[in-house]
Amino acid sequence: MFTTVIGGIASQGLAKKIAKRLKAKYLNSEIKVFPDGECKITIYGKPRGRIIVVQSTYPPVDSNLIQALALISKAREYSSKIIAVIPYFGYARQDREFLPSEIVTMKMVAKLFKAVEASKIVIVDVHSKIALKHFKIPVENISAVSELARYFRKLQLKNPLVVSPDFGGISRSREFAKLLNTDYTALVKWRDRKTGNVEIKSSNLRNASGRDVIIVDDMISTGGSIIKAAEFLKRQNCGRIFVACTHALLINNAEKKIRQSGVSKIISTNTIPSKTAVVDSSEIIVKAIS
Q1: Are 214 and 249 in contact (CB under 8 A)?
Q2: Closest to 272 in 3D by CA, of 254, 250, 252
Q3: In whole angstroms, what is the distance from residue 225 CA to residue 261 CA?
Q4: Alpha-carbon distances, residue 61 vs 27, 128, 171, 249, 289 (angstroms)
């Protein structure tokens, strides 16, 4: 089947890698922002066959989301088979009503993707599996843990311990540790839903003294949870601390703050382009598409 890959502004580097692996035609897109904030998107070339639109929706989330929807809508004029690759899917944390009267934004966003007639959506490490239940079209969530673990297998680590910053991510840490043939644990995290403040309450942490530690998470936004975890681990006299995550948003100078807390290195995938994005996610995405 002839395939065209369209790279959204937020994910053009990743889109080109996907097109190369698929031996597909690649089309670039360009955006012009008007003084009032509206944007006009142009696709350079005529897509045909199966069309894959690649666009993460990291900050500015709303702008990147609108661009993704616009690209899918335009692609639908040329083909009935549109695969939307949204490597980082914004609003996945707003998957339920945590406090009274909150709007479940993910439910609305899911309706928008159905409205523009995407045939299928591919996401990498969605923040919440509950978010996927809002979609009325096929959605495939894939894991980047294997790619991240492959990177860490190449490092000279001292008796590594894999740590999840909370129990919600313990299955991810378990899988990561299995791939490194080591053990894992999870910290006990508490977050105030109103203020967002994070505390490490306690932990069933095994002896971490002298061991290199890998904190594994799906995403880092402001880095608050990672910083608290790193400070706690330092008090346990661990060795070097590394952070592995799929999506490195790193808002408000988060990378510097995380490094200052004692973290030696942050490793992320290219679902979000940044200098920490040294792990390529294109292979696992292509497998999901194929």
Answers
A1: no
A2: 250
A3: 11
A4: 23, 17, 28, 11, 24
> Does residue 129 lie in a domain region?
yes
Residues 240 and 251: their CA atoms lie apart, in Å, by 24
Domain identity same for 126 and 222: no
Q: What is the per-residue pLDDT across 163-182, written as a single tens digit (0 to 9) for each?
A: 999 888 899 999 999 999 99
Q: What pLDDT digit, counting tens, does each position of 233-270 carry?
A: 998 899 999 999 999 999 999 999 999 999 999 999 99
* Separation CA 217–CA 145 (nearest Å): 10
- Phi and psi at 136, nearest 5°, equal -105, 10
Q: Is residue 34 located within the same domain as residue 21?
A: yes
Domain limits at 162?
145-270
Specify if 275 maps to a domain.
no
SS3 147: helix
- Are the C-beta atoms of residues 212 and 161 closer than 8 Å to each other? yes
Cα gap 158→152, rounded to integer Å: 12
Residue 279 in tokens: 């792990």
pTM across the whole model = 0.93
Judgement on whether residues 11 and 137 belong to the same structural domain of the protein: yes
20 and 103 share one domain: yes
- Please identify every residue annotated as catalytic: 189
